[in-house]
């Protein structure tokens, strides 16, 4: 079974909805789920990266507010008018949106959920409960859609990659593996937060996918040595601008440059909620800059006097940099569309036509 980052229980007749998130800061050493009952808890968990990744951030924010408002419904604390509940939802959503700036999925979810609350409050028979229930149903729908969208991305990626004879982000890799079309995947460690070595590698091992971990600085050597055997580099995305420029985890742009130099396909796998037609190009994307300590310190093993090594949250924080050095720590970079060969979405793969990506058709109702 695929590791679940989000565990959500809808309300029952007697209990409010509940939300638990996998604390990704403790992986790979501990698989610990943490209760999220308020927007403040969700905001902190997102900012600290206990939950991370563009779609997951949006869903945790949406569901945390569902849990908060659901508890008020069960406790019969929502005695205010429909309009007041709508305003409360709007304010809480705006607050959640401030947790992380780069990924568009959170802003997109906030915009859609505000429309749900507004529409529900405009109904002739609207009550505070009906607005709350409409909100909760929409947030729950986002979770359901995310799971099915990810599966579809994997399948589209695997199918098109198979046709063109090249390989695949993790959903695509899982689909290729399921179709017995993958001999090996390589994942990078992803300094400074090590999402690659702690999380992606953990999932690859968990899913029994043959995989090899390299440091970010080894990617060029790997491409020089194995470039002919590598089918493609596949990355996720936090925001794809209208022209195809793509913000993703720091280091992505370097991989795209390397891929182009070595003649390897470079593909972005992302749901349509990550495509931001309101952002013209990568220059308009806000890049989050994070604390210097993420670069200058690591959690190292703590060796007890009895020789036991502790490698979990009790580990010691070790400085790996000269004290006093200035640090720049952008969490994301922007890969120019020019270096991207295709964008794999849940409804199909978009490739460039006459050198340009055209995403508009992805959003047209059939
Ligand atoms: C499916 S997640 C896609 C992106 O959000 C992912 O590649 C990424 O850059 C995540 O950054 P993070 O800082 O770990 O939230």
UniProtKB/TrEMBL annotation:
The gene is MRI1. GO terms for cellular component: cytoplasm; nucleus. Pathway: Amino-acid biosynthesis; L-methionine biosynthesis via salvage pathway; L-methionine from S-methyl-5-thio-alpha-D-ribose 1-phosphate: step 1/6. One of its GO terms (biological process) is L-methionine salvage from methylthioadenosine. Catalyzes the interconversion of methylthioribose-1-phosphate (MTR-1-P) into methylthioribulose-1-phosphate (MTRu-1-P). The chain crosses the membrane at residues 56-75. Its EC number is 5.3.1.23. It is found in: Cytoplasm; Nucleus. The active site is at 238 (proton donor). GO terms for molecular function: S-methyl-5-thioribose-1-phosphate isomerase activity. Belongs to the eIF-2B alpha/beta/delta subunits family. MtnA subfamily. It is an enzyme of class 5 (isomerase). Signal peptide: none annotated. Keywords: Amino-acid biosynthesis, Cytoplasm, Isomerase, Membrane, Methionine biosynthesis, Nucleus, Transmembrane, Transmembrane helix. InterPro entries: IF-2B-related, IF-M1Pi, IF_2B-like_C, Initiation_fac_2B_a/b/d, M1Pi_N, NagB/RpiA_transferase-like. This is Methylthioribose-1-phosphate isomerase. Its main location: cytoplasm. It catalyses: 5-(methylsulfanyl)-alpha-D-ribose 1-phosphate = 5-(methylsulfanyl)-D-ribulose 1-phosphate. HAMAP family: Salvage_MtnA.
């Amino acid at each position: 079974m695929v590791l679940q980052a989000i565990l959500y229980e809808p309300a029952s007749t007697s209990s409010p909805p509940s939300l638990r998130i996998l604390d990704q800061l403790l992986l790979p050493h501990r698989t610990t789920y943490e209760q999220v009952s308020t927007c403040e808890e969700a905001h902190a968990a997102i900012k600290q990266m206990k939950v991370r990744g563009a779609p997951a951030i949006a869903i945790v924010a949406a569901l945390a507010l569902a849990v908060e408002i659901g508890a008020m419904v069960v406790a019969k604390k929502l005695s205010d008018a429909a309009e007041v509940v709508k305003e409360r939802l709007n304010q809480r959503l705006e607050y959640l949106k401030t947790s992380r700036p780069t990924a568009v999925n959170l802003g997109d979810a906030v915009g859609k959920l505000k429309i749900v609350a507004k529409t529900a409050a405009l109904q002739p028979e609207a009550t505070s409960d009906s607005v709350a229930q409409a909100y909760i149903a929409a947030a729950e729908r986002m979770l359901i859609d995310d799971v099915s969208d990810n599966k579809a991305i994997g399948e589209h990626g695997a199918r098109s990659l198979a046709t063109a004879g090249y390989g695949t982000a993790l959903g695509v890799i899982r689909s290729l593996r399921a179709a017995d079309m993958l001999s090996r995947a390589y994942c990078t460690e992803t300094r400074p937060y090590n999402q690659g070595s702690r999380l992606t590698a953990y999932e690859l091992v968990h899913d029994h996918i043959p995989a090899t971990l390299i440091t970010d600085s080894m990617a060029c050597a790997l491409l020089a040595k194995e470039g002919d055997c590598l089918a493609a580099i596949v990355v996720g995305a936090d925001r794809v601008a209208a022209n195809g420029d793509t913000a993703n985890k720091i280091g992505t742009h370097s991989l795209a440059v390397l891929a182009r130099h070595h003649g390897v396909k470079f593909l972005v796998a992302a749901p349509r909620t990550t495509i931001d037609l309101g952002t013209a190009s990568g220059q308009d994307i806000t890049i989050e800059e994070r604390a210097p300590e993420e670069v200058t310190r690591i959690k190292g093993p703590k060796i007890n006097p009895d020789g036991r090594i502790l490698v979990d949250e009790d580990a010691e924080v070790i400085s790996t940099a000269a004290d006093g050095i200035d640090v720049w720590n952008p969490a994301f970079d922007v890969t120019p569309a020019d270096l991207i060969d295709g964008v794999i979405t849940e409804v199909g793969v978009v490739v460039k036509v006459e050198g340009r990506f055209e995403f508009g058709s992805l959003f047209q109702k059939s």
